[in-house]
Structure to design on (68 residues):
């Protein structure tokens, strides 16, 4: 089951590249797994930990992966 934003219940989030904050990656959290959108190769995707800052795609919520 996909995790949802605690504020608006959106199921899509994004993370910023640590080296370039203008580069973002769309993610969904499904059954404790991170699924990258946009055809991103998981081998090339950034590492997402429980304390990685994530942002909701719909509202202004931001927090850590462990917060959803």
């Amino acid at each position: 089951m996909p995790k949802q934003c605690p504020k608006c219940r959106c199921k899509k989030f994004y993370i910023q590249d640590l080296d370039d904050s203008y580069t973002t990656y769309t993610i969904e959290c499904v059954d404790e797994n991170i699924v990258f959108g946009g055809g991103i190769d998981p081998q090339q995707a950034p590492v997402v930990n429980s304390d990685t800052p994530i942002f909701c795609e719909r509202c202004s919520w931001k927090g850590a992966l462990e917060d959803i």
About this structure: The chain has a mean pLDDT of 89.
